[in-house]
Fold each of these.
Amino acid sequence: MNTIKTYYKLLLTAFTLLSFFTANSQTQTVDLTGKWRFQTDVMDFRRGSLSPRYNHELQGEIQLPGITDDYQIGYKVPYKYIDRLTRKYEYLGPAWYQRDFEIPQAWKGKQIFIYFERTSWLSSIYVDTKEVSKNDYVSVPHNHNLTAFLKPGKTHRITVCIDNRFQYNTHKWDHAHTEFTQINWNGILGEMKMIAVDPVYIEDLQVYPNISEQSIDVKMDLANPTGKPISGSIKFNVAGKNYKLDKVMKVSGKDSLIHFEGKISLGKQIKLWDEFQPNLYTLSCKLSSDVEGARFEHEKTATFGMREVKQGKNHVLINNKPVHLRGNVENAVFPKTGYAPVKEDEWERIMQLMKKYGLNHLRFHSWCPPDAAFRMADKYGIYFQVEMPMWGRDAEPDEARYNFFRREMIAILKEYGNHPSFVLYCNGNEITGNFDFIEELTAKGRLRDNRHLFCGSTARTRVKSDQFYVSQQTNKGPVKVYEGLPYTNWDVSQQSDVDVPVISHESGQRAVYPNFEEIKKYANSPVEARNFEVFRELLEKNGMLDQANDFFKASGALTVVEYKAVVEALLRSGKSAGFQLLSINDFPGQGYASVGILDPFWDSKGLISPEKWREFCGPTVALLRYAKSAYFNDEVFQGDAELYNFSPSGLKNAKIKWLLKDESGKMIKQGGLKTQTLGTDGVFPMGKFTFDLKDIKKAEKLTVSVVVNDTIKNNWNIWVYPRNENLLTTTADVLYTTVFDDQAKQKLAAGGKVVLTPFPEQVQGRKSIFHNHFWNPIMFAWPPMTIGCLIHKEEPVFADFITANHTDWQWWDILNNAKVIEMKDAQQALRPFIQVIDANDKNEKLGIGFEALVGKGKLLVLAVDTKKDMDKRPATRQLLKSIDTYVKGDQFNPKVTVDERFIQSFMVKQFENKP
Amino acid sequence: MKKITYIILFLAFLSSKGFAQEIQFDKQASVDQGYLKSQESANLLPMNELNVETGYALYLAEINLSVENPMLSLENVRDYAVVFLDDKLQGTLADQHKQLALKAGPGKHKLQIYVENIGRITYGPEILDNSRGLFGSITLGKDEIEDWMITPIKIKNLEVSKLIFEQRKSSSLPCFFKAEVNLSQPSAYYLDISGWGMGEVWVNGTYVGAYWEEEKQQSIQIPSEALKAGQNEIVVFELKNLEQKNMKLSKQAVFR
């Protein structure tokens, strides 16, 4: 015990000394990071029944900043949660953190604060035996004013209670404190400090840029708890790259809170801030005041950018220039730490990745990130939409909850309002309840701060004060784009054209099969992918573990195909304000939505390179409208080229060409479009072109490219097929049939070959759909409940059908006219050549096409409609042609045997009309 | 100043404020022009089983009442239903209120329920249930109503130019209405739908949007490209407020 006391005394001496070393003018700061005494309080029998009332020394220890999970405190979770990552140690309740401090004698007369950058959710501070301060903000730092309770020269015992239980009845999914993405942690993060300032100090500093005047309006609240009149001056310094300006203004007043406003002209050399030129400036304000002979000083700084945001007709205007928001939804997905980073390095990496993937916008869904995120977005030029912890029924009447939201909104605007990256504010996600309350908040926000645009709720009822709208639909129709189509002559422009700019809500959401290699990435995380273990076991049980990586890659490739189509459709929509992809990174909750091209750690899954992604997602993108992806070779391709250009400038005398190449990269045709000057801030027609496909004699995959000035290039795959007139022709060798009848059975029994192409309505099982599942099959258990297809392209059956090992747009007419056969009762060795990837929580063997031995006979089954609209289905015809050549040749030698009962098991039962 | 000067000034003021132009709907077309193939069923069928992804359907049954004013109770309605008895509006049903007292005496009656579905459930305890329209049990008092005729109705993708309109008369069932409005110069407007119930709007044959009286938003933006100088045709499909005669063209968006 003695040793411990000595240790603390030493520590205290160190802190007291340190405070002098870090003193800045008359402000003094003590760093509070390090070792704290600690105690859990799971029972929370009676607040205060614990030690503080008795000045009891807590016996445990914890290192701060940190969270209880870091020290394996709490309930050791034995379960494997299926719908999310599993937290290894859960702690929910009050936890107590304690330290003793000697308050320096020199702090006499100063205002003393304890500041925690982020806690969750209620922090209350006990000085010695009394609770003296409480704070329940979620989105901003907790700054406790303890002046009245700390006596300079005395050693105080500071006990902090952090209570991470829900302080108000808000939605459990709110990303600010959900277990689904980050975890509902208990701890203290980021900067932790004790600050002593002179009693006249700058409480609030807000900078309002005026770009036409090239000035800033500075609005300050000066706290004056002295109760006496003050007079003095504020020395302003504006500093930036090659820029420096000083200005002094007089200030006086007598109130306890003195409001100060002043204008600073910045001159012509000041530069604007936007995504392309994120020029930043720092405003330092040094307040010197005299109060009855005493002189006080306090300094506060703010980083700002010269930018204004306005509501345009269809777009958000940054400095009066329309921007198109290419965004990602950020859902507090931080499995590495279990909480959102408070330091700059991780946010810097994220902002760099945003730029790398051609994005300029992040929506923080039902939460608001820490300051470091804003700082890095300011630096890299990313436009933020931030929200409160508000979702679903949070707007249903509940006065305590309403008052929390009222406080929280003002706190967010005050804390982060100066950041130029803070462009959009929305109360929360998909809100239901009392929209008079939502309008009240929105109107209040608008009135208070013109540095942001305001919106009531995403994807729900509109309110009068909306300045933009994020939704899957307007009253003019759907603006969501969740999936592509095998043609591109469409957009959502008309539906986006309402009274405010419309941003397409949560675009994409196409599921990728989980990558079980990610399991090992959680070794040092507070969470684990135990659901992946369950999925993997299921796959192993069903004999397909060796295919896990193929499923991941094939479904991932389809998601990339979909995202290219989704993003381009939204870029073609000239009257859309932008989109928010859900999401470029995986969402590890709500059933686990592995919809990203990056994993939950923002690491690439290797599905597409950033360079390739930027061809269709960036400030300038070449677009092409065309009517279909699969053609007969007696048809003509017609393309309509457009340029999406939201770069800083137009393209003067742009040289535009189109190219047609075959799969080996050989040029087949090319042509030029009229050299022209193209504008900026819109989607511009570049001209039409056509080419005849009659020279394509055999089935081919071709790539059409549009190239502008040799630097802007985008590509689209098309497939060209011969007419393949004589299909499904039964010969002495091969029987084609749509029914598994006696004739087919006899043929097989005789050792013959049978191709069975049953009508989809005659096959039991799920309907086949081209698209991979939306979001994830656990949360949304609706069709298709499949995650794309693995195509065994190396099989000889595909010799005349060009395909990758995943599905692309040529598969559209095949898959949308097919049925998914459940094959779990067939031998494990049987692998369908068109293998459908099952929902990852079921993992059964599924197929559309397979071959097998039935007795001595050879059977090929293709559960595709081969009769309907066959003159409009060139790819299906080509697949049948490829199958025909295969079955009539000598390579058709199925290895695995099934019996007749298996075939009958997936056919719809027929009632035989026997007399 | 003379009175006429006041009037001129007043008119000038109104035009500068974009005085809302009245539109009178004086033609109507019956909803059955949008009916698709009907299906008979002993019990309610969700729209999914009629191959309707989203949109409108009519559920029709003949009922025989033994008591006066019985209570109609529905197990599931996705998302909105308007109930008519013998071609008379009785009220509406939605997830929050799934009961309605019918105003009728004993005897045989024709029960017609027009239902609109606007999409999937993506939230809440029913999240895994993907059914739309009416399904589950439907009762009058304690008796299950059986023998339904269910008819999907093509509304949103309808070619309204092919509808056959007649002079407006009193209509008590959901109906299409048509108005002609003369504009000297096309420009962007907001169509003020205040007073109307729930429905869809087309301008010169192009679909322009939907409305619902319970939304705060009470107008649909009409882009200038949708309008032309001279006669313009506005078609509305209205589910329930069938006495409405007028809408207005306003320069500002209208919110409640």
Amino acid sequence: MKPAEVKIQNIEKSYEGVKALYNISLDIQPGELFGFIGPDGAGKTTLFRIMASLLLPDAGKITVSGLDVVANYKELRHILGYMPGRFSLYPDLSVEENLRFFAGVHGTTIKQNYDLIKDIYQQIEPFKNRPAGKLSGGMKQKLALSCALIHKPALLLLDEPTTGVDAVSRQEFWNMLKHLKKEGITIVVSTPYMDEASLCDKVALMQKGQIMDIEKPAVIVEKFGYQLLSIKSNRMFALLHDLQQFEHSLSAYRFGDSIHYIPESPIKDFNILSYKLAERGHSEIVIKETQAVVEDCFILLMQQSEKAHGINS
Amino acid sequence: MRIIFYILQKEFRQIFRDKVMLPIIIVIPMIQLFILSYTATFEIKNTRLSIVDQDKSTTSRALISKFSGSSFFTIASYETSYEDGMERIKTGTTDQLLVIGKDTEKKLSRKEEASVLLVTNAINGSAASLMNAYASGIINDFNRFILEDQGPAGAVPALIAVQSRHWYNPKLDYKTFMVPGILVLLVTLIGMFLSGMNIVKEKEKGTIEQINVTPIKKYQFMIGKLLPFWLLALFELMIGLAFARLVFSIPMEGSVVLLLGIASVYLLVVLGLGLLASTVSDTMQQAMFISWFFVVIFILMSGLFTPVESMPAWAQNLNRLNPVAYFIQINRMIMLKGSGFQEVSGLFVALCVYAAAILSIAVKRYKKTA
């Protein structure tokens, strides 16, 4: 089967008067590994459920390989693999029974598409007689992915597959996705982890039901366009506050164990900044220039859109 | 067809793997049948009777011995005055009080009318009327005995002797009456609770999400969901019938095949109601309480415990909507009276209409919500 092409046009959705998605439009190319990046409540799951034909949009249209998700949902479900954010296989059925059931209802067998899931399924095959509910988080995920793939879909939708999974399993999972891409499956994935953005071919940064930017991860970082300073001192909490209060501060926020500071215009001499901080009672001050990552771009875009819309949060 | 097979396979696996539900499905109905059949009875034995004998004559003693000789009464105490006897009624240490007045024998020997006083604790109305009836029966019997005893044979007024015979349940055995009804109750519980809960369970656990994105069609899903419980309930009814026959020696006058045939339609109604409950609820708790609400009303009004005929007119009209009432009536007719299809056809048609209506509403609602 050919990898699917997804066209999203002007999708809107509200829940009881609260807008969850504002006019979302984008195209996903066949065979692409596409990521929706955004915090909880950005509207990722809503968009995924609409793409999976589980939810009706208020307005707009989505087609997958030309199939409308509302009008042609029956045909769509043959070529769609969906893995919801919440584990939703039968916990009282064994690993093998779950897989066999989903193969069966899709009119196929495990044998027929074994090649596709082999790499993933082999890792959990030693536990094939264990009830799915008794698997560890990482194994549950591999089983869920196997079940979503067993009918060789043209489009694979993965809603927050790595949420609540340990760092090693997350890495493994992304490696599996890269392999799957080669099989000719369009993969759409959502995640709240900004560091996973760089693993996608293309990402859409989402915030409060809107898409702020759609680009290749490398381009997003390139477009950052500001000087970014990583600053530490002995009083980190006060440091964040002080940096935010600076006259020429564009943005300052916590980033790992340091504060990221974006001045309005590039600073050449860090000593002046260092002196200003010392004036406010800081010591052990370390200032370094650093490379922006997707998270920095996201935060900057978020602040800009908030300023533009006059939202106070 | 293949898809339905896969769903059925999955459902049966889940049912038989559930270590809590399986015993509930199989064992508990049997226990209920056993306990309910013995305890849900209106037969009254060992009514406690206190006696105030102010006459202390041969006649009064003869009357008392009539009471003590009946298995219905046990003599709780002999009191010296009416007040003492009433005290026992008040404290609840006796159920009935018989006061035989002074000079009863004297009056009778003078061919005058003598009277006795009967006081019954009527907190439980139906039990009280039974106690009254039994006691009056004994006293009437005694009356005739006195009449025969006193005058010459010709002097006995000609009486119409009523000989009663109880058809379909000759020994007036309450188990015979209760068991067919309780069998209905059991299949109703299985059908309504398990089917409704099962679908809601998929919603609650989120597994319905994964089902909904597969090419499974709605009708396939519903057949896959309802058929296992339909089969299970029929199986349960068969076990129950065998149990009734072997343990309680309840007669099976009519055709078992006819009974099962009607049961299979009745179950469609019940499963439909379960499905309806599941479409309006998101959690198993909600489904449980909705089903419970209806089942309790259905059962109380069904004629299982109290005769439908003695309910007020509005209740009898309401009972036209009560599937349990229909099936209990059919079940008793077939099992005890040996009624054939002809006799139950009216009720059967009503069930068919009901099944069609409920299922189509449930399916319609289900499509809208899921």
Amino acid sequence: MNVWIAIGVTAVGCYAVKLAGLLVPAGALERPLVRRLAALLPVALLAALTAQQTFTDGHALVLDARAAGLGAAAVALLLRAPFLVVVAAAVVVTAGVRALTG
Amino acid sequence: MTSAGSGLTVWQSCALSLLVFTGASQFALVGALAAGGNPFTAAAGAFFLGVRNAFYGLRLSQLLALPRAVRPFAAQWVIDETTAVALAQPTRRNARVGFAVTGVSLYLLWNLTTLLGALGAERIGDTDTWGLDAAGPAVFLALLAPMLRTATERAVAALAVVLGVGLLPALPAGVPVLVAALAAPAVLYVTGRRAARRGARGGER
């Protein structure tokens, strides 16, 4: 049930901001500070989420096969690999390290 | 996709793609729920990630000049990809066609792959053995990488990582990510102060 509540709230919220951009007069959102903040918020959130999902297990900080997988993804990104190759690199390396270290 | 690997049912995964339809928010919501976050903190993180779509809408509404009656339907397709395609077109007509074609094809493809991914993940069973738990962070990293253009963005990312990971043992699930979001206004404030001290006027970087 909790999952459905989360899906519902997210769906309404995300649709509302999409529609707001199309409906709100330009002046309200065009202030430079607001624009800079909107550009930086995803940076902060994505960075925090990347780190959390790689280096944590529940409430504990851990260093395991996922770190190697993320490293592989980073290398793939530096080589300008396509999106799916980046994700595949992370998955394959993580599975590989896990298989080797058992 | 990865959502079924984090304990969502096939129906929940599909509803997420059909109704939310903005990738980063979906992955964030799934990640937060998998970590045991309550539905509202999980939704808040996903919502903040979706806020950038409002700014895409702002530029698109001037570019496409859609009739008011069409806007509520067009809104669901206001995402990174459709905006990029529409902004790259030389004329308004091309921009409208580009927006519509990208919107329809991505919407169909995204929802189809979600269904297949969710069904597939149910078959596989333990997704961790296959390394699929690394797919989430890799997706986030791939979305994040092109945004890290200047020192300001890198500072925000670094501070957010420290806050997000450092506070995790201390705060309830889902909350550290929201605290990490404060890295954005914090860095913006510091860079603003520095610019002011140097005598540079205005909000430019």
